[in-house]
Give the backbone structure.
Amino acid sequence: MNGSAPFTVATDGVAPNSGDAVKTFVDANIQITPPNATNPIGTNHTLTGHVNVNAGLGAGYVNAPNGTVITFSLTNAGGATAAFVGPNNCTTAGGTGSCTVVISSSTTGTTTVKATTTVSVG
């Protein structure tokens, strides 16, 4: 005998057990528009970030809540020197799930832009 015996533990809400745990999984996506563009050097280029969330409550995808912060990052290649004109993040407002940032480059090349967010629902 190895000194062990099977026993059952239940989350029945009766002390010292807790009630059942509930975990809700949500889905979200983020887009940047325009997805591709060519601009003259030295001109400002506005990028719009948009976040959709699906809380799984049957409503489908809806705009992210007001106050959702979208943070952008960029990677330059081929001689590009793009930088943000102002902050590299923005906050959604007006129920749109969208907000904008601006970039500009004083040289030719290619710039890849990424966007991230943390979404709270419920």
User: Anything to note?
Assistant: The radius of gyration is 23 Å.
